[in-house]
Amino acid sequence: MIVVLFAMVCGVYICSICLKQVSTRTKSGFSSVQVIQRPCPHPDVEPEELRYMHHPKPNTYSRAECACNPVRYFAILSMQRSGSGWFETLLNNHTNISSNGEIFSVKVRRSNISTIVETLDKLYNLDWLSSASKNECTAAVGLKWMLNQGLMQHHEEIVEYFNTRGVSAIFLFRRNLLRRMISVLANLYDRDNKLLNGTHKSHVHSPHEAEILAKYKPIINATLLIPNLKQVEDTSTKALEYFKSTRHIILFYEDIVKNRTKLLDVQDFLKVPKRDLKSRQVKIHKGNLSSQIENWGDVQKTLTGTQYERFLSVDYRRR
Ligand SMILES: *[C@@H]1O[C@H](CO)[C@@H](O)[C@H](O)[C@H]1NC(C)=O
Ligand SMILES: *[C@@H]1O[C@H](CO)[C@@H](O)[C@H](O)[C@H]1NC(C)=O
Ligand SMILES: *[C@@H]1O[C@H](CO)[C@@H](O)[C@H](O)[C@H]1NC(C)=O
Ligand SMILES: *[C@@H]1O[C@H](CO)[C@@H](O)[C@H](O)[C@H]1NC(C)=O
Ligand SMILES: *[C@@H]1O[C@H](CO)[C@@H](O)[C@H](O)[C@H]1NC(C)=O
Ligand SMILES: *[C@@H]1O[C@H](CO)[C@@H](O)[C@H](O)[C@H]1NC(C)=O
Ligand SMILES: *[C@@H]1O[C@H](CO)[C@@H](O)[C@H](O)[C@H]1NC(C)=O
């Protein structure tokens, strides 16, 4: 009798805890978060891991034979001209990965946290239709998100979203920030001057086009050089600090260029079957930095003896 009574009390207690958890979940601000449904059993999976496995039910189509394949949610967090466009074409070369580009380059989608959450919900429910969508057999879905596209501004809510919804972050940074600066300046110049037969291109697919774009040599303002490099460095440090509680991986563009096994690490991180990934994009600026900057002497003088001196040295070897 006592045992039965004890069991009943325990039962009621456990129920009340459950109810409490349910109510905190709905109070957390993301009312559109679907209650986790698990029609597909994954008996061998750790509970901690289940948090990152999703079974979205798109509104516009059925996941058909892949309905029970779990889907991982990811976001590539990066800065302009850090190789993220190239990186994304590599990911999209995987049959099971769908990375939908810079969705938040459109300002209204990042006007406030509600529009951000609404956009992410749609994306992660596999209802975002872009040229990268692979529909029913997608096993990892995500986007490319630049730090200056509302990410830093709304970091608290976005981190909460990532953690409650089980979104993994892929940081992609560039080690050589001076090379990044050249790419930024050249891209800005091309936007106004459209070197390729009057069309502005940020990424190219032929060595010929790359050569034309690389002909332009920017002049770098030596006074602003160090403050600019420092600002970019500080922004990436801050982003890592903000998002450190999320499940994440940190990648550097240069490492992927030199060592393609880094791409296996990424596929491991996303838990997709491993493939050899290819991109058709061609690198625009290659070879010696000295031949890519108009006022190389000034730049060299400014950086020599500073913490940024390493950016001057040859760090590029073509694969
Ligand atoms: C991956 O790239 C290769 C080579 O460019 C191409 O043949 C293949 O169709 C691509 N696969 C996907 C899924 O895009
Ligand atoms: C968020 O932005 C959208 C689009 O600009 C607007 O319609 C909506 O009223 C805003 N919501 C809040 C809570 O500010
Ligand atoms: C990957 O996609 C193929 C079809 O393109 C599908 O047969 C396979 O089950 C998918 N793999 C995963 C892990 O979802
Ligand atoms: C641009 O012009 C060159 C030569 O005038 C031509 O060979 C090339 O096909 C053109 N490219 C495009 C994209 O129109
Ligand atoms: C560099 O930038 C500073 C601050 O904007 C400006 O005062 C200066 O004239 C610039 N120098 C050159 C050479 O453009
Ligand atoms: C390439 O990357 C892999 C995985 O990150 C690492 O284990 C390996 O040591 C790297 N190889 C070189 C030559 O750096
Ligand atoms: C690059 O610079 C090194 C040393 O400064 C020089 O030996 C080499 O010839 C240069 N390469 C090119 C392609 O200009």
TrEMBL record:
SUPFAM superfamilies for this protein: P-loop containing nucleoside triphosphate hydrolases
UniProt keyword terms in alphabetical order: Signal
Lineage summary: Eukaryota, Viridiplantae, Streptophyta, Embryophyta, Tracheophyta
InterPro entries for the chain: Nod_factor_sulfotransferase, P-loop_NTPase
Signal peptide (residue range): 1-24
Protein name according to UniProt: Sulfotransferase
Gene3D superfamilies, per the entry: P-loop containing nucleotide triphosphate hydrolases
